[in-house]
Amino acid sequence: MAGPRTHELRIALTVPDFDAAVAFYGRVLGLELAARWDQPAGNGGIFEIDRATLEILDERMAEGVDDFEVGRRVSGPVRIALGVADADATAHAASDAGAELIGSPQDSPWGDRVARVVAPEGMQLTLFGTHQGGRDAAG
């Protein structure tokens, strides 16, 4: 590979209610809050995830994914996909915590169990986990 190598992927979300977002991503989705700062200029925090990837889709593929997961084109240029142990349980916990379930849990043709929610601050999240046939969420 030519050129410098990127060593970290960091996605920064701007949210209207910081504490509610920290609770949702931490308690509901199980992300680990590695750092938090509360300052007069504002609040921030970093959740750590074991593995990050950057997935790039063309418009046709994004439309196909949306069509499968939700039944229509709904995502914008960014959608976050989180690998979870149990997509069904996580989707229901997210819904109970104020997320909108827009794509019910189902087995995907690409080998994952998937569900789509809109988090309370508006970010679309695909939750993917073990397919009922038995592939693990890291795949």
**Radius of gyration based on Cα positions:** 16 Å
User: Using DSSP, what is the number of strands?
Assistant: 6
Helix-strand pattern: HEEHEHEEE
Low-confidence spans: 133-139
Taking the alpha carbons of the first and last residues, their distance comes to: 23 Å
Largest sheet descriptor: 4 strands, mixed
What is the topological layout?
Elements: H1 18-28, E1 32-39, E2 42-48, H2 59-69, E3 80-83, H3 87-96, E4 100-107, E5 113-118, E6 124-129
Written description of the protein model:
A four-stranded mixed beta sheet has the order 3-6-5-4, covered by helices on one side. It has helices at residues 18-28, 59-69, 87-96; strands at 32-39, 42-48, 80-83, 100-107, 113-118, 124-129. It is built from three helices and six strands, in the order αββαβαβββ. The chain has a single domain (18-129), classed as 2,3-Dihydroxybiphenyl 1,2-Dioxygenase, domain 1, CATH 3.10.180.10. Strand 4 and strand 5 form a beta hairpin.
Salient structural properties:
disordered C terminus, 23% helix, two-stranded antiparallel sheet, 2,3-Dihydroxybiphenyl 1,2-Dioxygenase, domain 1, 4-stranded mixed β-sheet, globular
Condensed summary:
The chain is of the alpha+beta class and 139 residues long. Helices cover 23% and strands 28% of the residues. The chain has one domain: 2,3-Dihydroxybiphenyl 1,2-Dioxygenase, domain 1.
